[in-house]
């Protein structure tokens, strides 16, 4: 169970998440994805670290991997049980989930801010800060806010 707590602070502005596995700086957690049965979830930090809770199975992490840009989101693959992470530059990282493409290495007008799996989990969408939408797998383009 997560409990919010202020530890003896070295940095006054920081909140910390405390749990049995360890302490995570609050401002570094950027996303949450529930497990298929909603009996658990994964948290992802900006450095790509993934933290599993409840019945959510750990499938790997990018916490020790040098990244060009920070991770900004996570979504679960209900078919494989794995998950996808996305970085602000559009790079997608598939962890025990099929890689379906990314915007990494492509010039973007605005940074990516999130990722969402399709209902079938055979695709995903990325969304950018300017409302741009990028579809992969069976995701169909339905429009954008740009």
Structure notes:
With 146 residues, the chain is mainly beta. It has one domain (25-137): YVTN repeat-like/Quinoprotein amine dehydrogenase (Methylamine Dehydrogenase, Chain H). It is built from no helices and twelve strands. It has a three-stranded antiparallel β-sheet, with no helix packed on it. A three-stranded antiparallel β-sheet has the order 4-5-6, with no helix packed on it. A three-stranded antiparallel β-sheet has the order 7-8-9, with no helix packed on it. The termini are far apart.
Short summary:
By secondary structure, the chain is mainly beta. Helix content is 0%, strand content 41%.
Task: Show the helix and strand layout.
Blueprint: E1 3-5, E2 16-19, E3 22-25, E4 29-34, E5 40-45, E6 50-54, E7 71-76, E8 83-87, E9 92-95, E10 112-117, E11 123-128, E12 133-137
Antiparallel strand pairs: 1-2, 2-3, 4-5, 5-6, 7-8, 8-9, 10-11, 11-12
């Amino acid at each position: 169970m997560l409990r919010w707590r202020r530890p003896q602070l070295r940095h006054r502005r920081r909140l910390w998440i405390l749990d049995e596995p360890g302490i995570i700086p609050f401002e570094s957690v950027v996303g949450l994805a529930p497990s298929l049965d909603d009996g658990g979830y994964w948290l992802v930090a900006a450095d790509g670290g993934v933290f599993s809770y409840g019945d959510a199975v750990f499938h790997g992490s990018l916490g020790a991997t040098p990244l060009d840009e920070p991770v900004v989101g996570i979504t679960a693959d209900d078919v494989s049980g794995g998950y996808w992470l996305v970085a602000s530059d559009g790079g997608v990282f598939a962890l025990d989930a099929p890689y379906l493409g990314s915007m990494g290495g492509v010039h973007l007008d605005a940074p990516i801010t999130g990722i969402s799996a399709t209902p079938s989990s055979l695709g995903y969408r990325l969304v950018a800060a300017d409302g741009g939408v990028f579809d992969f797998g069976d995701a169909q383009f339905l429009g954008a806010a740009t």
